[in-house]
Specification:
Layout: H1 2-6, H2 11-15, H3 26-30, E1 35-40, H4 42-45, H5 48-57, E2 60-63, H6 69-72, H7 82-93, E3 99-104, H8 124-141, E4 148-153, H9 168-173, H10 177-188, E5 193-198, H11 206-219, E6 226-229, E7 232-234, H12 240-251, E8 256-265, H13 292-309, E9 315-320, H14 353-362
Helix pairs in contact: 8-10, 12-13, 13-14
Bound molecules: ligand G3I.
Ligand G3I binds near residues 65, 153, 230, 276 and 329.
Length: about 375
């Protein structure tokens, strides 16, 4: 009941006649215990079969990149909402909540927000004014349509001994740029749920820094409702119990937890997560499809992880990062032009053994 009450905000989904428990689709298997979502791009909506699969299988969607700063506003400060509006229209037609991704991310942004044309940090007050105005413009446009935002993405450093990534926002404003972004977001839409999103924060090192960040926002009386653990995991790392410990530590701060970008990479890779700064060598062993033994291994891994995740009542959403294998960012990361197979549906939109494993694990929801 506790978990159900925490999802009151999503009660409208239940009201829309979704089956409560059991059933074959992912969202039927999850029922009203937690939301099952996926990342969707406007290009997905151009494919009627794919759009139908999204509407059938998932409760909610996250625009994969259409709401990223660099796609929302140009170098002259002109906003374009068309792509995001298309995703919203699709979601509204299917009564699906939309998770806004994201307001602040150093990797896909516009230089003028925090730097001058030479790359020098802007004065703090000017950078704060730009940040406030950007958040007001985007959240103002989507007020009432997007009711949960990933306010800041990937601010915590991967480096031992360094708390926050050295980003243009940090250099121009200082460490409180994160708190300011949350303050501006709450003022822009007081009804919106606000969360912090990052990769590998379920693992020692970044986990401690994440708890530190949550505590600092809480002590500054900044509204933060949840933490998004992205969940870009490998076929053999991190262990499921480590993921569980990380969820537990974040939940102990009072945060809801979401797995926001889940995929499991069956191809060989040196490190987990999505550190876009790193480039690695990368074999391409399965260009013509994942062999049966790897399908089985992938299914087992997905089943173990989701079984662990659903043990935690603080988890309110599991989102998969993409619709099918052909759409995954992992076809081009950490090296370009690999043929990857990290999701639950193959390139022909057929459910893989990993889909069955997740469906079974979801049905274990208490
Ligand atoms: O396909 C369009 C093309 O038609 C258009 O002309 C072009 C204009 O820029 O954009 C193309 O889309 C690109 C898209 O990938 C598909 O290839 C976008 O530019 C590009 O920004 C987008 O990259 C996204 C990436 O974040 C941004 O670096 C990926 O889709 C997305 O999966 C990836 O997701 C990130 C999360 O946001 C944060 N966590 C890590 C995760 C993986 O990097």
């Amino acid at each position: 009941m506790k978990r159900l009450s925490r999802l009151v905000f999503f009660a409208s989904l239940v009201a829309s006649g979704l089956p409560l428990l059991g059933g074959e689709t992912l969202r039927e298997a999850a029922g009203s215990h937690l939301l099952i979502g996926c990342a969707v791009a406007t290009r997905d909506l151009d494919d009627p079969k794919l759009a139908a699969l999204v509407a059938e299988q998932f409760h909610c969607i996250t625009p994969e990149y259409d709401l990223m700063p660099a796609h929302m506003v140009d170098d002259a400060g002109k906003f374009t909402f068309d792509a995001g509006d298309r995703v919203i229209a699709f979601a509204e037609a299917h009564h699906m909540p939309v998770f806004g991704h994201m307001l602040v991310w150093h990797f896909v942004t516009r230089q003028w927000l925090f730097e001058d044309k030479t790359g020098k940090p802007l004065p703090r007050e000017k950078a704060l004014a730009n940040l406030k105005s950007y958040i007001e413009s985007v959240m103002g446009h989507y007020k009432g349509k997007i009711t949960a935002w990933d306010v800041v993405n990937e601010a915590i450093s991967d480096k031992d001994g360094e708390y926050l990534k050295d980003t243009p926002a940090l250099r121009a404003i200082g460490a409180d740029y994160i708190a300011k972004a949350f303050e501006f977001a709450h003022a822009a839409d007081p009804k919106a749920e606000l969360y912090y999103n990052d990769y590998n924060i379920e693992q020692p090192g970044k986990l401690e820094k994440t708890v530190r960040l949550i505590r600092s926002l809480q002590s500054a009386s900044v509204r933060i409702d949840a933490v998004g653990i992205q969940g870009h995991w490998l076929i053999d790392w991190p262990p499921a119990d480590m993921i569980g410990k990380g969820i537990g530590a974040i939940a102990a701060t009072g945060m809801k937890v979401m797995i926001t970008e889940m995929d499991v990479d069956p191809l060989p890779r040196d490190s987990s997560g999505a550190n876009m700064a790193q480039a690695e060598k990368g074999a391409n062993p399965y260009p013509h499809g994942l062999p049966p033994e790897m399908q089985t291994k992938l299914a087992k891994r997905y089943g173990e992880i989701v079984t662990e995740i659903v043990r935690h009542p603080a988890v309110t959403m599991i989102g998969f990062w993409g619709t099918h294998d052909g759409r995954s960012w992992l076809n081009d990361y950490p090296v370009k032009n690999r043929t990857n197979h990290p999701l639950l549906f193959d390139r022909e939109l057929k459910p893989k053994p990993a889909y069955d494993a997740v469906n079974t694990a979801l049905k274990r929801l208490p």
